[in-house]
Amino acid sequence: MPDYDFVKLFIDEAHRRGMKVLASFNIFCEGSGLFKRGIIYDTHKNWQSINYVPGKGLIPVTEIEDKMTLFTNPALPAVQEYERSILVECAKMYPIDGIMVDRTRYDNLQSDFSDFSRNAFETYIRQKVERFPEDIYEWVKQEDGSYKCVTGSLFKQWIEWRASVIYRFFKDTRAALKAARPDIIFAAYTGAWYPSYYEVGANWASRTYDPSGDFSWATERYKDYAYAELLDLYTNGNYYWNVTLEEYRKSNGTHKNETDSKLSSGEHLCVEGGCLYSRQLLGNNPFCGGLYVEDYKHDVEQFKRAVKMNLKMSDGLMVFDIVHIISRNWWDVLTQAVKEAEQEMHAESMNH
What phi-psi label fits residue 283: left (phi over 0), alpha (psi between -120 and 50 degrees) or beta? Predict the structure, then answer.
């Protein structure tokens, strides 16, 4: 419907009701494997990520079987300029209150091993990579047929370089948006699982936090590419069934997040733990705790507990995704949970 400006209508109606609207964008994801559509299928095939796939080697992402979400190579200047131009265009065209970026990261640990990335990495570390990608890491086949990631001598520098790529996009994009609209809110959304989020190159922590003291994958320079201070608003995804630390401790403790290459464990893998850990990593930077409605589709009470925990332990609530509230008709449930959280927090503040 080319003559129907849905975005304008949405903003106008929201503003009439005293609401603020942030336009959300999937940044480096430019292809649908299900429909075989997107710019990396036609106009910009050379922008697609080259993934290092276990047992298969280096493969263009459009040629990976059963892959639904297809990424570009974030390191390409043309890709960054293209994505940024869309955000600036939106900011100029509409009286939007803010821009929220999602998937502003690499696809996963397998992405991107193109010739461009190799050359850019070599420039960054000022040396040639003799064995690519083996000097970064190698997929080694095990006796049971599975593949194990064996890191090479340049692995930590590779992780650092990728974080620098994503940081540069955030820095340049903030500058461009503020130049277009000084009042605009620049926001971002990521998964909450920081200990394994290095696999996608996104260091969403504060620059005051140095992960090199806590994690073997982090160099001393990794903290230089933390981008929390570049944001006006941040929300994480505490996408876990377990709400409390007590519940997590009673569970088997393992969890595989969307972006992870393997199972992980740790007390951050529950709603309460995710909020506590995010607070520690972000310092004075506020955040909204996020939840995924479908995690609780069989238990409405657990959903309410997750809503209340995020509101109590963070600076707000992000509900992903509105379609699940609509389809389950959980508006009253959500409203009740928010009211209960407000009442409980008020009671606690009075006691103190």
Answer: left
Nearest to 14 by CA among 95, 102, 99, 101: 95
Q: Characterise 18 by phi-psi region: left (phi > 0), alpha (psi -120 to 50), beta (else).
A: left
For 143-159, the pLDDT digits (tens) are 999 999 999 999 999 99
Cα separation of 292 and 240, whole Å? 8
Query: Can you give the length of the chain in residues?
Result: 352
CA dihedral sign, ordered 196, 199, 202, 203: positive
d(CA 190, CA 109): 16
Contacts of residue 91, defined as CB under 8 A and 6 or more positions apart, other chains included, come to 99, 177, 180, 181, 184
CA nearest to 296, candidates 256, 264, 337, 258: 337
Instruction: Report how far Cα 34 is from the mean position of its chain's Cα atoms.
Output: 22
Q: Which helix (H) or strand (E) holds 281?
A: helix 271-282
Q: Which residues contact 274 (CB under 8 A, 6 or more apart)?
A: 192, 193, 236, 238, 240, 268, 289
Positive or negative, the CA dihedral 213, 216, 221, 223 is negative
Distance CA 265, CA 312 (A): 24
Spatial separation of the C-alpha atoms in residues 111 and 162, rounded to whole Å: 10
pLDDT the model gives residue 1: 86
H/E element holding 195? Answer: helix 194-197
Contact 191, 257 (CB under 8 A): yes
| Band of residue 352 on the pLDDT scale cut at 50, 70, 90 | confident
